[in-house]
Amino acid sequence: VDFKLYSYYRSSCSYRVRIALEYKKIQYTYIPIHLLQNGGEQNTEGYSKLNTKKEVPTLTHQDFHLSQSMAIIEYLDEALPKPQLFLGDAKQKAKIRQACELINSGIQPLQNLRVLNKLASDFKIDELQKTKWVVDHVQSGLAALESFLSSHSGQFCFGDSITAADLFLIPQLYNAERYKMDITLYKQLSKINKNCLQLESFIKAHPDQQPDAPK
Amino acid sequence: VDFKLYSYYRSSCSYRVRIALEYKKIQYTYIPIHLLQNGGEQNTEGYSKLNTKKEVPTLTHQDFHLSQSMAIIEYLDEALPKPQLFLGDAKQKAKIRQACELINSGIQPLQNLRVLNKLASDFKIDELQKTKWVVDHVQSGLAALESFLSSHSGQFCFGDSITAADLFLIPQLYNAERYKMDITLYKQLSKINKNCLQLESFIKAHPDQQPDAPK
């Protein structure tokens, strides 16, 4: 097996890459990095050489290592193009990337563990305030995405084929549900969610199915 | 002129795209969107049809419109590949994207105007606390980037050629300096900054040179 993925079961960025690997039927070794135990295993000297931002995921391919889920998924799509995740001509690929980035830079960074911990410690906010912060950002991001996709979606984000956009959407909706948000408010997004969650690659990549998920 | 850019002079995401346009010598019409005046011009009905997240930049190319700076720069690089911004083989391009994302999803989202306004209104924090929040996130992001680039940089982020990574770095350093951060702490990054700021495309794209910059 040439590929290794350093992953945390509940990390939405790791989840995106796991779907890509499963969808492309790439065998890989799963290396759990527990973000909470042992002072955060991402902070060890060995791991931070692989990933200078001390985050998951990191993918290694033989002696090559790479982080940032967007960069990893683009790389997998260039190195192993079938089935393609950035589908279509330059304009279509651009729209797929726009959808990915609405989540990748527009939502996820504002609600990840490190940021929430910093909010709590800098501003002494309580759990209720923290939840409101997350929900507000996720709602405005998902609303923008729902509206953007209205001229693109079919069974999935872009017509009836899986694209990279679906790999970003499903983990973000999983996160939203952890915060008890009602995702059926977003009719297209929740329909796409249902469709994706029936597919083998999404099932295998789900947080609950990972070796480091609690029993 | 086939291209129009909806931009705000001081927006670092707009600045990235302006450098790409100048570097590729693409003529474009500049359409200023003032993020503060008139209740935020990004919030008008007309603009929010173009950009459902109500952000800058948006690029239009004939009847095609696109937002998210990463998606725009990838699109320009596919549609008008010379000179190339994502240079090299799949592995090299992946590393360039990783550097871009360390800024695009790792730093910028935590210190943009909308997020800072929300911090102030949700948690009643003062200017000093706001500045500390920005500086902490920018510092940890730039430190991770400085360390990551140690095995890649030359005159620029990747060797001695301009790549997309430089288009993300220079606007982020401009922002850091607005917050009075000492960017010479990052030896490679500040050297790259100096080198880039001498180039015509970076000079033309600079916030101070835009039609909507205050006199």
Compact description:
The first copy, chain A, is of the alpha+beta class and 215 residues long. Chain A is 51% helix and 8% strand.
What's the structural blueprint in terms of helices and strands?
The structure is a homodimer of 215-residue chains.
Chain A lengths: L2 E5 L4 H12 L4 E5 L12 H6 L7 E4 L2 E4 L1 H11 L10 H15 L8 H11 L3 H23 L14 H15 L8 H10 L3 H6 L10
Parallel strand pairs in A: 1-2
Antiparallel strand pairs in A: 1-3, 3-4
Can you tell me about this structure?
Two copies of one chain form a homodimer. Chain A contains nine helices and four strands; from the N terminus they run βαβαββααααααα. The first copy, chain A, has 215 residues and is an alpha+beta fold. In chain A, α1 (12-23) packs parallel to α3 (69-79), α1 runs antiparallel to α7 (164-178) and α7 packs across α8. Chain A starts with a strand and ends in a 10-residue tail after the last helix.
Salient structural properties:
homodimer, 215 residues, alpha+beta, 4-stranded mixed beta sheet, 51% helix
The backbone outline of chain A, from C-alpha atoms, is globular
Order of strands across the biggest sheet of chain A?
2-1-3-4
Low-confidence regions of chain A: none
Our measurement of the CA-to-CA distance between the termini of chain A, rounded to an integer number of angstroms, reads: 27 Å
Secondary-structure element series of chain A: EHEHEEHHHHHHH
Radius of gyration of chain A: 17 Å
The mean pLDDT of chain A is 96
Largest interface: A-B, 46 and 46 residues
Report the oligomer. Answer: homodimer
Beta strand count of chain A: 4
The fraction of residues assigned to DSSP E strands of chain A is 5-15%
Total of DSSP H or I helical runs spanning 4+ residues of chain A: 9
Fraction of helical residues of chain A: 40-55%
Main β sheet profile of chain A: 4 strands, mixed
